[in-house]
Structure formats: C-alpha cells, structure tokens
Amino acid sequence: MDSDNATLDLDSDSLYICLTQLFGPPGRFHWSIYITDAQGLATQYQWAEDLARCDRSAPVEKYSCSIVQPVKQRSETLQWNLAFIKMSHFVRTMDSDSYDELFANIFTTSWASWKDNRQHGLSCRTWAIAALQKLREKGGMRRLSAEQIAGLEAKIIAIGCAVEQRVAIGDNTVEMAEL
After folding, report:
1. What is the DSSP secondary structure assignment for residue 93, as one 8-state letter?
2. Fewest 10 Å CB contacts: which of 77, 84, 131, 176?
3. Is the whole-model pTM more than 0.85?
4. Alpha-carbon span 75 to 69, nearest angstrom
C-alpha cells in the first residue's frame, strides 16, 4: 500500500462532505459530497472546474458526478483530501442516479470566469450547502431545519481549518469527523 495515498474506508449508506486542499489563504477548500451505497461504493457529486473546457468563453465550472473506487487520501488530480465529514442525520432515500438528478440542477448556469461565478454566489461550498438543503426537502436529512443545515457550514469550515493547522506541522492524516 502506498503510505502517501492511503485508501479510506467510508461507511455504507452514508453521506460525507469532503474538503480538499486548495492552495491560497487558509480556510479555503474544495467541497464535494460523497454518498455511499449499501456495499460502500462511493459516488462523488460536486461543482468543480470543467477540465474539458476548450473555449475561454465557455463556463469555467460545472456539476459532475462520478464513482470513486477506491476512495483515497489524494484525489485523482493529486490534491489532498483533508477531511471526510460524515453527516449523521443523512438517510439514504434514493439510488445514485436519483441523487445525480437531484443535484444536477442546483446551479442552472455558470459563467466564463471564477470571479463572475463567485459574484453570482456560485462555488463548490454554496453548491454543497444547497445540495444538503435539497436532501432535507426530500427527507434525506432527518430532523434538521433549513437553519441547521445552513449552520453546518461554519462547523465544516472549522474542522477544515483545524486539519490545515495539523498539516502545517507535518501531520497529513485525513480527518474522519462526524456532524
């Protein structure tokens, strides 16, 4: 096993917010959602850079979903997955394709620059919180109000910042947390 890129075990029928390292000021992360099925197979849902973009006037970001098997400490693009935060209130209410349909239209447009997307409130973080709200509306986040879902954002950021502080002193262990 490659000790620099350990395989991570995610619980079956669970939802995790994954925070991935971004270079820049502390406290900024790429956010994505991993949902596992009964066998533990993980599907990643995210709002991210369109790596196939060929035209500078085309949208810079888009929604995507993909099976990730196995889940590793480093992403396919070699970025560190700093934390996987299990959402304890999650109840799996549909199959992977139905989650894909639910999440695909959270943002219906994207602009040609990150600056324009951010000015319009489009980011991986705002997408992930909106996805949790959609799940709540469909009964997939039991016993949480819209305000409580919105309140998860600060808690998730705090976990990510704590991991960044550990990484700064040489501890590269992925944080497996639960909210």
Report:
1. -
2. 77
3. yes
4. 11
CA distances from 160 to 85, 157, 167, 168 (A): 10, 5, 10, 12
Q: What distance in Å separates the CA atoms of residue 80 and residue 153, rounded to the nearest whole number?
A: 20
- pLDDT tens, residue by residue, 16-51: 999 998 888 888 999 999 999 999 999 999 998 877
Which residue in this structure is represented by tokens 């409130």?
121
Structure tokens at 142: 């039991």
Neighbours of 87 (CB within 10 A): 22
74 residue type, one letter: R
CB 43 within 8 A of CB 102: no
| Residue pair 178/88 in contact by the 8 Å Cβ criterion | yes
Q: Is 131 helix (H, G, I), strand (E, B) or coil?
A: helix
What residue type is assigned to position 105 of the chain? Answer: N
Nearby residues of 146 by Cβ (< 8 Å), 6 or more positions away = 133, 136
What span, in angstroms and rounded, lies between the C-alpha atoms of 62 and 44? 14
Strands 175-178 and 81-86: parallel
Distance of CA 51 to the CA centre of its chain: 17
